[in-house]
Amino acid sequence: MAGATYFLPRDLHPGAWWLWALGLAVGASRTTNPWLLLTILAVACYVVVARRTDAPWAMAFRMYLYLGALIVTFRVLFRIIFGGAEGSTIILRLPEIPLPAWAAGIRLLGDVSAESVLGGLYDGLRLATMVICLGAANALANPKRLLKAMPSALYEVGTAVIVAMSVFPQLAESVVRVRQARKLRGGHGGKRFHALRAVVIPVLADALDRSLRLAASMDSRGYGRAGVVAARTRLVTGTLMIVGLIGVCVGVYATLDGSTPRYLAAPVLFSGVVVALIGFRTAGARVKRSRYRPERWQLAEVVVAASGIGVAVAMFATSSVDPTNLNPSLVTLSWPMLSWLPLGGVLLGLVPAFLTPLPQPELERVPA
Amino acid sequence: MIDLDGVSFWYHGQPEPVLFDITLSIGESELVLLAGQTGAGKSTLLGTINGLVPHFTGGHLEGSVSVAGVSTRSGPPREFAHLVGMVGQDPLAGFVTDTVEEELAYGMEQLGVAPPVMRRRVEETLDLLGIAELRRRALRTLSGGQQQRVAIGSVLTMHPRVLVLDEPTSALDPTAAEDVLATLARLVHDLGTTVVLAEHRMERVIPFADRMLYVPGDGSVRDGTPAEVLRETPVAPPIVELGRLAGWDPLPMTVRDARKQAGPLRSRLPEKPDHTSAVVGEPLLSSSGVVVRYGQTVAVRGVDLDLRAREILAIMGRNGSGKSSLLWALQGSGPRQGGTVQVDGADPKALPSARARKLVGLVPQTASDLLYLETVADECAAADLEAGAEPGSCEALLARLAPGIAADRHPRDLSEGQRLALVLAVQLSAAPRVMLLDEPTRGLDYTAKASLARIVTSLAAEGRAVTIATHDVEFVATVAQRVIVMAEGEIVSDGPTAEVLTGSPAFATQVAKILGGGWLTVSEVAAALPRVLR
Question: Which residue ranges does UniProt annotate as crossing the membrane (chain A) (predicted)?
């Protein structure tokens, strides 16, 4: 089935990209080795560059990179400002600012040791890598398609979110338009409140008109066509959902609170989830609706997801074999080492850059 | 296909019914034009067909409406989605998704059509409407005509037996409107769809229509072929008015029909119409090299334009040709990256907006953006205050422009034409000598257009320079002395109305198409005919 059609351009299932990115992020969470972290970063960036479209959300990847840099800088700065003297290798002697007695335990400036700065750097790098991995998922998976891939019981919620997402640009547009129009009328005739009202009222009236028209259009196009649902079915679904949710609540509480009997913890949580899922399914089953070009889980998706999960598994496996390599010691300072096994594991994450189809060319954005 | 039996409809709290005891039946694959003045009940009648009236709007409906044998009383509009496709006035407001392909599929998803069938129908519809190359485009980036065709497509994919459209061409330029109408005609011929459409600009639709319903506004409906109905309607497209004037029988419905009968009339007319118009005065606004850019897109490309006193100038051109941008730049509120604008020795862009509007007034495309108070009287009082005019001057202006608007009415409850008059009065209270109007004829019926024509003519006669951006050829022929046509931000033709309008088939009025020889409007012909013949 694969063969010739495998590499034809198409958009992959957004879930596959999320699995891949989460795998990388989990892998990153297992290590503080800067070489490994930087490799994971490089892998994520390379795949993003190779497989992203030029849609706005894909272009936002740069923002995640900035955010990562910010995280690292802050971590290191904090170590320098708030007491960085653990360890013996002092690299910077700053005058310590004396603080009153009530602030005991907090140190401002003072000696800075290489160990604590390095600790901050490793820690920050790990967090930054995880954030950037999530950014990569965001850049590669179309958020709207992710919404579309939601289970059918949540269809209404998904539609509401999509409509809301398209309302914001419209609202912004009408604010701009009305403010311009306001200028035509000479701007301010009085107090500031007056001016605000002159913008807000037309914008809201416009938004209300629009939403009424949208509602009429959706209604006449069959939105919410439930078909006939027997009262009994409704009752059953409702009961299932509520019982399930109560079970989940009790289970979560019991799991977190050690003093409750153990049989209220895992068993109740698990059965609650099962009951709620059954309720979900019955709710979804009564919805007679179909999907245009549904997202399909094909071989390429499996490859993407497997490569991400592979990275996570490799990091877990090496941590039991060779833990010191993953978390370089901060007690005895040394150049962090890199062994072949985790490096190979991380490089597994590069697979999607080569073994997936290219994304569909993006829509032209030139206004007609 | 559609059967109305004794249908009456009241909105809550209103004594007069909008529709009263209407019985009619529309057959399969008919194209029906619904005409009538604003507020006469066109939209209400359309809404009854799929149950939006009264399920969505409220009100009280008597009698029964059924489509393909199913009564709309039996369920909400969504249960009729597979039978009746409804396309609203503003296609953009009705879009649910954001790309063309998804929008076409949306209705089918709701109906639960199987994915392979959906895929096939989307492709068929893309081809049928000639929008295949737009399939992955974002809906917001499409032009008005393209959006309208996508909106039609989005209901067509559900294979409805009936298609209902509310003013599908009112916001479109003549070429785009023709595209949309040709598409509809094709649906009627190829698929046997029944099409019911309401439209103010009857002249565009009549050549395609099999049948015409006219709502005079008293709750009744006149039903018949267009030729029958138009024989006595108070408003009619120019082609019919010309036919009435010349006493043609049967009344011509298409330019081709009219041409066949036009021979005798042509021979009675003098060689050339008398186009000597009022003497235009000195330039009030002069601009040169105006450039407007939005990022990479150039909207206005170095335009030189003088607006002269006592002259009505019409700016025409397809959607997106830079008409609005030019008006906003001339007024000074919009962006302008280059060139100069001089009014009364000053550049309105450099002045504070309160001073700029005393030089140049602008009524924007969505005129209601300017209104924000609860009553007409409040708006007028605020306008006097903002303009620094004598108290009561805006009200006086309004009384002159559109007499008989109650001062305690809410501006949003006014008809399009009345609201336009109110905004015009608000803008005129600052007493600018240059008045710019952006698409004022949008959504106006013949009566409202005639009174707008009266208003702008009197404004020009008082010594103002009036500039109107519009698609409406007939309106331009009635009021304008000079026309410029814009394309891609440049002026491509500029000259007296008669010259520009007769020069190109896209901008020729119906009378020009029938008679040729520089004749533009029915009133010109009427004035030129020897008195005995009239």
Answer: 35-51, 63-82, 153-172, 235-256, 262-279, 299-317, 337-355
